[in-house]
Design brief:
With 331 residues, the protein is of the alpha/beta class. It is built from 13 helices and 12 strands. The strands form 3 sheets. Strands 1-2-3-4-5-8-9-10 form an 8-stranded parallel β-barrel, surrounded by 10 helices. β3, α5 and β4 form a beta-alpha-beta unit.
Length: 331
């Protein structure tokens, strides 16, 4: 199944709304995470929503976001062609100052299925105006738009906030009505970055109230949960039951990647690093003590395959928690 666009993604969200499950939105910046995700989602017969932030695109492009985005989406297109599920790309946390240099060319080149415009740091009226601009730009391309109302504490990529502001149901209704967004990211007590779910003041009741208010007005757009890393299974399930239909995951994958790589290299240190005090030339492979590294272990593909497996394992667990296993529309 080839990489798909906004119209197909909209149908997946409509199914999630009807059947009460959520999509996990998975951030990635390089191939190992992507390969692990595609493996897990294909096995589970669940459509895969990938996320690319400006920082991830910048990393993949050697400091140039747009070439990096093109490279990452090219990789997605190539691998998704034989994945047997629907695969989608959301641009994550793109701020208003990058509309012209990042969002517009991404829309014109078909590099995304949806885009999240993050104007939540602006006053309400300015947030509405900035979000509405992106909605108007995206409509002709059939791309969905996610807006954010309220502030989520913590740091995610290049977005930072020292404090949280909960989303008010009435403001959420007005915001959706005036902007025409397809999805709404709400602040209900989660945090970006490293946080433990048990330490959060999580407002499941607020998610329920926002969902109910939007439904009353005939604006039942899917709600989005940012900062979901660290939540327990019970917390995730409660939020999905309250109307959350998109659950973002980034920090969890970053940690699993680092943990897996760190453990591998620590376990194989003697085969990769020369003994203390021993000189070694990585160009000639000459060593004063006659030591040589083991190519079966220092080849980055060996560690990479372990990362892919670890990411796939976490992805399978998240699919189970949000209830999207076996619910692919495009398998």
């Amino acid at each position: 199944m080839p990489y798909l666009g906004g119209e197909e993604l909209k149908r997946v969200y409509e199914l999630a709304q009807r059947e009460g499950f959520a999509l996990v939105a998975n951030n990635f910046a390089e191939p190992n995470v992507l390969i692990g995700l595609i493996s897990a989602y294909s096995e589970a017969k669940s459509d895969l929503l990938l996320q690319i932030s400006l920082g991830a695109a910048k990393f993949a492009g050697g400091g140039r976001p747009l070439p990096g985005l093109r490279a990452l989406v090219g990789y997605v297109r190539a691998l998704s062609a034989e994945a047997g599920i629907g695969v989608f790309v959301n641009l994550d946390h793109i701020t208003p100052d990058h509309v012209e240099d990042f969002i517009v060319p991404a829309l014109e080149e078909g590099l995304c299925s949806s885009v999240m415009i993050d104007a939540s740091a602006l006053p309400f009226e300015e947030n509405v105006a900035a979000t509405k601009q992106v909605v108007d730009l995206a409509r002709p391309h059939g791309v969905l738009v996610e807006g954010e109302l309220g502030k989520i504490k913590g740091v995610e990529d290049e977005i930072a906030s020292d404090e949280a502001f909960y989303t008010a149901p009435e403001e959420a209704a007005e915001y959706v009505d005036r902007t025409g967004v397809d999805l709404l990211a709400v602040s209900v007590g989660t945090q970006h970055g490293v946080s433990k779910g048990r330490d959060l003041v999580l407002r499941v009741d607020l998610a329920q109230k926002i969902t109910a208010r939007l439904q009353e007005l005939g604006r039942g757009v899917p709600l989005v949960l940012h900062g979901a890393s660290g939540l327990s299974e019970e917390q995730v399930r409660a939020l999905v039951a309250a109307g959350i239909r998109k659950v973002n995951k980034d920090t969890t994958y970053q940690y699993v990647y680092a943990q897996t790589a760190c453990r591998f290299y620590l376990e194989n240190r003697a085969a990769i690093l020369p003994p203390e005090g021993t000189g070694f030339d990585p160009i000639t492979f000459e060593s004063g003590a006659g030591w040589s590294p083991d190519k079966k272990l220092f080849d980055p593909r060996v560690m990479g395959r372990k990362v892919q497996g670890a990411v796939a394992q976490v992805a399978r667990e998240m699919l189970r928690q949000v209830g999207s296993e076996g619910r692919s529309l495009y398998a």
